[in-house]
């Protein structure tokens, strides 16, 4: 079902600007890089490589900010193209956009939608695994400290 906001524009069958499509492409590339970074983070966690872990956390922070900026640019471009407010443009789905473009652009949007879904699913899976690995590491450290301190009383004369 196409929302009324989109129906207004459908009569003219807009052609999305190159800026919008290139913005989507850049977002997919950043999302792919986030997945690669999350995989590197997983490797750092499994090998107890704290330096690599810190590098990947900083990399992910930067990539996330870039992705937010790209999303704002894409929404602004869509807003200008459709002649709607930023808030309205932010709520437009890829499926709705596909109903507004020619067949060639529809195929490009379908491919990008598939890529977004694939990378998002991979990122969610890796983030869940990394969270599990982090929680296990934290529990291991807590148990080790508990053993070394004998529940608060130094067992091995270790000051923590």
Largest sheet: none
In round numbers, the mean pLDDT is 84
How many domains make up the 3D coordinates? 1
* Number of discrete helical segments: 6
Find the count of extended strands (DSSP E, 2+ residues).
0
Order of helices and strands: HHHHHH
| Class by alpha and beta content | mainly alpha
N- and C-termini, Cα separation: 62 Å
Which properties best describe this structure?
mainly alpha; 160 residues; 6 helices
Describe this structure in words.
The chain is built from six helices and no strands. It is elongated, with a radius of gyration of 23 Å. Helix content is 79%, strand content 0%. The mean pLDDT is 84. The N and C termini lie far apart (62 Å). The protein has one domain (4-133). The protein has helices at residues 4-10, 18-46, 50-82, 86-90, 94-98, 103-149. Helix 2 (18-46) runs parallel beside helix 6. The chain has 160 residues and is mostly helical.
């Amino acid at each position: 079902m196409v929302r009324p906001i989109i129906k207004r524009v459908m009569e003219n069958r807009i052609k999305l600007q190159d800026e919008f499509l290139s913005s989507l492409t850049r977002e997919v590339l950043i999302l792919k890089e986030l997945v690669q970074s999350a995989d590197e983070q997983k490797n750092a966690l499994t090998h107890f490589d704290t330096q690599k872990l810190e590098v990947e956390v900083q990399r992910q922070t930067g990539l996330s900010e870039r992705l937010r900026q790209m999303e704002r640019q894409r929404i602004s471009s869509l807003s200008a193209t459709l002649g709607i407010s930023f808030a309205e443009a932010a709520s437009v789905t890829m499926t709705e956009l596909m109903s507004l473009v020619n067949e060639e652009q529809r195929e490009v949007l379908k491919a990008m939608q598939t890529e977004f879904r694939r990378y998002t699913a991979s990122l969610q899976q890796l983030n869940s695994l990394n969270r599990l690995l982090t929680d296990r590491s934290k529990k291991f450290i807590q148990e080790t400290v508990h053993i070394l301190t004998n529940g608060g009383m130094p067992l091995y004369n270790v000051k923590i």
